[in-house]
Write a structure and sequence with these properties.
- This protein is an alpha+beta fold.
- It has three domains: 4-157 and 408-427, Porin chaperone SurA, peptide-binding domain (Triger factor/SurA peptide-binding fold); 180-191 and 296-385, Chitinase A, domain 3; 194-291, Chitinase A, domain 3 (Roll).
- Helix content is 51%, strand content 16%.
- The protein is built from 15 helices and eleven strands.
- The strands form three sheets. The protein has a four-stranded antiparallel sheet with strand order 8-3-10-9, sandwiched between helices. A four-stranded antiparallel sheet has the order 4-7-6-5.
- A hairpin with a 2-residue loop joins β9 and β10 (375-385).
- α3 (62-88) crosses α6.
- The radius of gyration is 26 Å and the shape is flat.
Length: 429
């Protein structure tokens, strides 16, 4: 089961193309595929990204670098073939809104990983605004290729006989399965109370006053906004379309005139002041200052007291869990169904706190309370499966997914081999 090339192709299609500072721009064409060119810098870029994701250092190993570059070039050629076939089959249409949303998601993800806009610009070697413009067409091609590949492999299915044959062929090499739990939980969020809301109101009203006195919006946003992704750019979010932000924010933003500053706007993220930077047709460029309504230590202590009270009830009587879940859900405005987590492998649980809480628990038992960023939790184990070597009886869905992946890989590989004969491909030295 060799998935290296298809994993690399997935990286090409879905990952942002990071211009690593160490790469130093390399001029020259690596390959021509149909009417498209692949630059040598594109190849090095993807090779370095792949190495980073695999924690592999390429600087001191030229042979390994050459191997990564060879695999990267093949993956980029495959992407260009997918784009070419998508155009031939008239499946290369994609809306501007989809590209805009995917681009902003990629940039947000990058900023989260890198840390700040200034570090982003240093790493990329260009301003964020310029990156947005240059990268738009790259994202468009990524989405088209991804969609076309999914359309091709969606035709592939496996039946019971094929899954069993796959299992017999690979059962000795299948990775061991983690212990699997069927879980439900009670979650007590740490909600900001009136004191926290009052503190946030005081802060944003002071900022509003300073704006009315003529202080620069961008300066105040850079210094005081709680939106880490935009504060480095003076609160600027870039161009957006309707539907990309929360309704309360958009309702105000789209009704502003250039340079106009809004009153205080409340959303689920906190309290905002918004100003319109520019408007182009149906798109607007806005800046904002965000003040989060952060819970106080007293709010946390209140949630902790509640969850301890619930555990005190459950410790001698776990059968009361469902009734208590209904009460808790009603108190916090959630559906009781939201407490059900379902079957999940131990390693796929959201955090180490979950794994630690489950240690030693048997079916029907509840965990002691534990804390995550979402609040305080109590887990109940509904069912449990031991880990170890996977078998068809207990792990059929997982084995079926592996068998389908293998068949999809073989189908796509065969299809690509056949279609290469219809596409002009020239690999240059």
């Amino acid at each position: 089961m060799k998935y290296t090339w298809i994993k690399l192709l997935f990286l090409v299609i879905t990952a942002p193309w990071i211009l690593l500072r160490a790469q130093e721009q390399i001029d020259g064409i690596a390959a021509i595929v149909g009417d498209e060119i692949i630059l040598k810098s594109d190849v090095l870029q993807l090779a370095q990204m792949t190495a980073l994701q695999n924690n592999t250092a390429l600087q001191r190993n030229p042979d390994l670098l050459q191997l990564f570059q060879s695999e990267a070039l093949n993956a980029l050629i495959t992407q260009k073939i997918l784009l070419d076939r998508a155009r031939v089959d008239s499946l290369d249409e994609i809306s501007t809104e989809e590209v805009d949303q995917a681009l902003e998601a990629q940039i947000s993800n990058l900023l989260g990983q890198i840390g700040s806009e200034s570090e982003f610009e240093e790493l990329m070697g260009q301003r964020l605004r310029d990156f947005r413009q240059d990268h738009w067409f790259v994202v468009r091609d990524q989405l088209i290729a991804e969609r076309y590949q999914n359309e091709k492999i969606s035709r592939v299915a496996v039946n019971r006989e094929e899954v069993e044959a796959f299992y017999q062929a690979y059962k000795d090499s299948l990775p061991p399965v983690d212990p699997t739990y069927e879980l439900t939980q009670i979650l007590v969020p740490v909600k900001a109370g009136s004191v926290a809301y009052g503190l946030a109101q005081s802060k944003i009203q002071l900022l509003q006053q300073r704006l009315s006195q003529g202080q620069a919006f961008s300066k105040l946003a850079a210094e005081y906004s709680d939106d880490q992704a935009s504060r480095e750019s003076g609160g600027e979010l870039g161009f957006i379309r309707r539907g990309e932000l929360v309704p309360e924010f958009e309702e105000i933003a789209f009704n502003l005139q250039p340079g106009e500053v809004s009153d205080i706007v409340e959303t689920k993220f906190g309290l905002h002041i918004i100003t319109l930077v520019d408007k182009q047709g149906e798109r607007i460029n806005v800046s904002h200052i965000l003040v989060k309504v952060d819970p106080t230590p007293e709010d946390r202590q209140l949630a902790l007291s509640k969850v301890r009270e619930f555990f005190f009830i459950l410790d001698p009587g776990p059968t009361l869990f469902d009734s208590l879940l209904t009460i808790v859900s009603s108190e916090f405005g959630n559906s009781p169904d939201l407490g059900y987590i379902g079957w999940i492998e131990l390693s796929l649980l959201p955090s180490q706190a979950y794994r630690s809480a489950l240690f030693g628990l048997q079916t029907g038992q509840v965990s002691p309370p534990f804390e995550t960023k979402d609040g305080f939790h109590i887990l109940k184990v509904l069912n449990f499966k031991e880990g170890g070597s996977p078998n068809l009886k207990d792990y059929y869905p997982q084995i079926e997914a592996l068998a389908l992946r293998e068949k999809q890989s073989e189908y796509l590989s065969t299809w690509l081999s056949n279609v290469r004969n219809d596409v002009f491909i020239s690999v240059l030295d």
